[in-house]
Specification:
alpha/beta, globular
C-alpha cells in the first residue's frame, strides 16, 4: 500500500525565491504537480492525504475534486512537516509512505519504476562484498545492501554531476532504469513506515527550521553505513523539482507539463 502525504501551501511563491519553469505561478504549479502524481499512481493501491497550510478557496476546491483526505491549518513550514510525520507514524509498518512537497512534477512512469524497485529489491540490491574490500566499501562485508533501510528520492538533481559535487556511490540496475546511491534529499522522499519510525527522533528534529540537511546527514549513508539507510535516486529521474535551476536532466518536462495541462495525459504501462 502506498500512502501519499502531499504537503502544500499556495500562500508562499517560493521559499528560496527561485523562478518557476514554463511561466507558471505557484498555484498553477501545485495543480500541475498534483495531477501528475495522481496519474502516476493509477493502477497502484494507494491513499492520498493532503496537508494544506493556509491554502486558498480555489486550491481547496481543486483538491476536493479528488479522492483525498484533506487536513488544513495555519501551520507554517515546520509544523506542516511535523503534521506529515505524525500521519506517517500511524501507518502499518509495511506501508510505503511518500512524503511529497507540492512542487514536484512526476513523469507518467514514476510509480511503475518505483514499484519495480520495491518489488524486486532483494534481487536488485543484493551486494556481496569481499572481506578484502571492507576498508573501502561503504558496507559491512558480512551484510548486503538489500537488508538495510531504504529511502527513495524520485528526482535526479543536476548538481550531482558538477565536478566538485561528484561522490563515489553504488549504482544498481532495475528493469527500467539505473538507481544511484545519494547522500542527501529534500523533504520529498519515500520509505516504509517502519523505517520512518526507526528514524523518528532525527526526522522530528529536522522539522525545526525545515532542516533537510540535518535529516540527510543523520539518516543517509555516504561512505559508511553504521546504522544508516541507503537512499536511492533513479537515473533518469522520475520527478523534478519545479525550479528552473535544478530540474532533473534527460527528461522532456515541458512536454510532460504540456500534456498534463492539456488533459491529454496517457500513462504507458507497457
Amino acid at each position: 500500500m502506498y500512502r501519499i502525504i502531499f504537503r502544500t501551501c499556495d500562500a508562499v511563491s517560493s521559499v528560496h525565491g527561485a523562478a518557476r519553469p514554463f511561466g507558471l505561478d505557484k498555484r498553477e504549479t501545485i495543480k500541475l504537480c498534483f495531477r501528475s502524481l495522481v496519474q502516476s499512481l493509477d493502477g497502484f493501491e494507494h491513499s492520498i492525504h493532503v496537508v494544506a497550510d493556509k491554502i486558498s478557496d480555489e486550491l481547496r476546491q481543486f483538491f476536493l475534486q479528488y479522492n483525498v483526505t484533506l487536513t488544513e491549518g495555519n501551520f507554517g513550514n515546520d509544523e506542516s512537516f511535523r503534521t506529515c510525520l505524525r500521519l506517517a507514524f500511524t501507518y502499518d509498518d509495511a506501508d510505503w509512505v511518500y512524503v511529497c512537497e507540492d512542487d514536484y512534477l512526476h513523469a507518467p512512469q514514476a510509480f511503475l519504476w518505483i514499484d519495480d524497485l520495491i518489488a524486486n529489491r532483494e534481487k536488485i540490491l543484493l551486494t556481496k562484498s569481499r572481506r578484502s574490500m571492507k576498508r573501502i566499501l561503504p558496507i559491512d562485508y558480512r551484510r548486503s545492501l538489500n537488508t538495510m533501510p531504504l529511502f527513495i528520492h524520485p528526482p535526479d538533481y543536476p548538481d550531482r554531476y558538477k565536478p566538485r559535487e561528484r561522490d563515489p556511490s553504488y549504482i544498481f540496475v532495475s528493469r527500467y532504469c539505473h538507481w544511484r546511491q545519494v547522500a542527501n534529499s529534500t523533504f520529498t522522499f519515500m520509505a516504509e513506515a517502519r523505517t520512518l519510525k526507526k528514524y523518528r527522533s532525527v526526522l522530528e528534529h529536522a522539522a525545526t527550521g525545515a532542516d533537510d540537511g540535518y535529516m540527510s546527514n543523520n539518516i543517509f549513508a555516504r561512505y559508511s553505513f553504521g546504522g544508516r539507510a541507503l537512499c536511492l535516486s533513479p537515473i533518469p529521474g522520475v520527478s523534478t523539482h519545479m525550479h528552473e535551476e535544478v530540474m532533473t536532466p534527460l527528461v522532456d518536462w515541458r512536454k510532460i507539463a504540456r500534456e498534463m495541462m492539456d488533459g491529454s495525459w496517457v500513462a504507458n504501462r507497457s
